[in-house]
């Protein structure tokens, strides 16, 4: 299950102006779980509701402030694993398209993978 390019306006960053002015962020979430029963039964309770995953990401990105995008990614992964027991593993990518650093690049990002064995 993949949710790609979720957009949020948030106030994460090391520099005070990032926390005051905010900026755009994108989040990708890839959840690994068995979708066999959901596919066979057409029953949402055998899967994960995309809207609920989006809301987890939105709440974390827009209602909390972190210095590091690493912390945002870890928090999203932890919440997904806690809220959705059917998910075995998730990969979270937090993209910061316009960080306040000089140079030419598409974006900077952090991507982590967390599963039940490394979720505590």
Automatic annotation (TrEMBL):
By its UniProt entry, which SMART domains does this protein fall under? FolB (SM00905)
The lineage's top-level taxon is Bacteria
Chemical reaction(s) catalysed:
7,8-dihydroneopterin = 6-hydroxymethyl-7,8-dihydropterin + glycolaldehyde
Q: Name one GO cellular component term.
A: cytoplasm
Which key words are in the record? Folate biosynthesis, Lyase
What InterPro entries does UniProt report for this protein, alphabetically?
A: Dihydroneopterin_aldolase, FolB_dom, GTP-CH-I_C/QueF
Q: Pathway membership of this protein?
A: Cofactor biosynthesis; tetrahydrofolate biosynthesis; 2-amino-4-hydroxy-6-hydroxymethyl-7,8-dihydropteridine diphosphate from 7,8-dihydroneopterin triphosphate: step 3/4
Q: What class of enzyme is it?
A: lyase
Return the EC number. 4.1.2.25
The GO biological-process annotations, alphabetized, read as: folic acid biosynthetic process; tetrahydrofolate biosynthetic process
All residue ranges annotated as the Dihydroneopterin aldolase/epimerase domain in the record:
1-114
Molecular functions per Gene Ontology: dihydroneopterin aldolase activity
What is the role of this chain? Catalyzes the conversion of 7,8-dihydroneopterin to 6-hydroxymethyl-7,8-dihydropterin.
Q: Which family does it belong to?
A: Belongs to the DHNA family.
The protein's name in its UniProt record? 7,8-dihydroneopterin aldolase
